[in-house]
């Protein structure tokens, strides 16, 4: 870890905000995105938080992402909406979509909002946790911002990691939050290992010769493997239909690699949904059933060599509180990159 020590969430957000400001992002938009990015780090989604700043600033600098974007609803019904992200920072369109989905769910029982013209927006968990905190079920998925996966049995890289997240109130201190890629590992984790000079486990990637690839610095020599083989491949395609094709967004060969191509519009597709639990069952009965089921799962005796059973999302609240109290630890390589960004765009460093 960096010898300079942890940094407070507020200081991290302020740094990101002024960096975006230097690139022409309006102050309120910069503040919104910076807050979500630092929240991702504070919650422990460190591969999708401030780690992504370099990719975002490169696209803003080179014109691939619009600084003064105005995401807006282009069509809607009582329970649905379609948002044009206006090629701005992805967090802005996704936050708007999340807010609209919850508002519609309160009226109609369910709200489903698709996004086109978006960009990378950090971890999907950011756009399902608010629903759970409001007593709803949240659902979110996205077409990955670059293709890293071949179709099952094929060798052409035509799919992304296509993440999906689901959250629900649990009746406990943390909501249930499942946030996962449809690959064995997200590309962000592999890039983090490369930045730290650490190897990746066998089974995450294979080379184009079909042999295991364990050097993250050679990630461009192969492709990511889907979870569960053909099942993960099928799930990735299904998400591509719901988050991409349904919204008129990119999917398959149309996906632009937002890291290597910093000048082209990505037209990233996502969706956010909210389900009002009260439209189906009493909220108290729902959380009571969750507590009972989760208690049974956690009481299961662990296999030899395994930690006790956990529930997805468990411990995130404590991690957030610890980050707010003790600060966020940044790897030395990431801290150095943030310093380079500060120098490049003439803003005060952390």
Q: What layout of secondary structure does this protein have?
A:
Elements (H helix, E strand, L loop, with lengths): L8 H14 L4 H17 L9 H10 L9 E5 L3 E5 L5 H19 L1 E9 L10 H5 L2 E7 L21 E5 L7 E5 L6 H10 L8 E3 L4 E2 L8 E3 L5 H15 L23 E9 L6 H16 L17 H11 L5 H14 L5
Parallel strand pairs: 2-3
Antiparallel strand pairs: 1-2, 3-10, 4-5, 4-10, 5-6, 7-8, 7-9
Helix pairs in contact: 1-2
Can you tag this structure with a few keywords?
350 residues; alpha+beta; Ribosomal Protein S8, Chain: A, domain 1; Wheat Germ Agglutinin (Isolectin 2), domain 1; 2 domains; seven-stranded mixed β-sheet; three-stranded antiparallel β-sheet; 37% helix
Q: Describe the main β-sheet briefly.
A: 7 strands, mixed
- Reading off the top of the CATH hierarchy, the class of the largest domain is best stated as Alpha Beta
Instruction: Tell me how many strands there are.
Output: 10
Query: SSE order, as H and E?
Result: HHHEEHEHEEEHEEEHEHHH
Shape: globular
What is the percent of helical residues?
25-40%
Helix/sheet category: alpha+beta
CATH architectural grouping of the largest domain: 2-Layer Sandwich
Distance between the termini: 15 Å
How many structural domains?
Answer: 2
- β-strand percent reads 15-25%
CATH superfamily of the largest domain: Malate/L-lactate/L-sulpholactate dehydrogenase, NADPH binding domain
């Amino acid at each position: 870890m960096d010898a300079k020590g942890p940094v407070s969430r507020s200081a991290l957000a302020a740094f990101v905000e002024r960096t975006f400001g230097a690139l022409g992002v309006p102050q309120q938009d910069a503040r919104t995105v910076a807050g979500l990015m630092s929240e991702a780090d504070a919650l422990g989604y460190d591969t999708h938080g401030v780690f992504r700043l370099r990719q975002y600033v490169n696209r803003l600098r080179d014109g691939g992402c619009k600084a003064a974007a105005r995401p807006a609803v282009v069509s809607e019904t009582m329970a649905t909406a379609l948002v044009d992200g206006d090629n701005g920072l992805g967090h802005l369109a996704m936050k708007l979509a999340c807010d609209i989905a919850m508002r519609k769910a309160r009226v109609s029982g369910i709200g489903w909002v698709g996004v086109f013209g978006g960009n990378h927006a950090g971890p999907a968990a950011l756009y399902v946790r608010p629903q759970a905190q409001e007593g709803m079920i949240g659902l979110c998925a996205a077409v990955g911002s670059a293709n890293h996966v071949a179709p099952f049995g094929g060798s052409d890289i035509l799919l992304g990691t296509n993440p999906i997240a689901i959250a629900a109130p649990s009746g406990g201190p943390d909501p249930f939050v499942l946030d996962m890629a449809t690959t064995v590992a997200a590309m962000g984790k592999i890039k983090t290992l490369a930045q730290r000079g650490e190897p990746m486990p066998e089974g995450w990637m294979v080379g184009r010769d079909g042999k295991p690839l364990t050097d993250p610095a050679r990630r461009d020599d192969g492709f990511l493997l889907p979870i569960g083989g053909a099942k993960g491949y099928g799930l990735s395609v299904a998400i591509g239909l719901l988050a991409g094709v349904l919204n008129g967004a990119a999917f398959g060969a149309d996906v632009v690699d937002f890291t290597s191509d910093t000048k082209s519009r990505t037209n990233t597709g996502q969706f956010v949904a909210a389900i009002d639990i009260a439209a189906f069952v009493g909220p108290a009965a729902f959380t009571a059933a969750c507590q009972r089921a989760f208690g049974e799962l956690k009481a299961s005796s662990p296999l030899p060599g395994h930690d006790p059973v956990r529930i997805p999302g468990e411990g995130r609240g404590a991690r957030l509180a610890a980050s707010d109290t003790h600060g966020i630890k940044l790897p030395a390589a990431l801290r150095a990159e943030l310093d380079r960004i500060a120098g490049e765009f003439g803003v005060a460093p952390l």
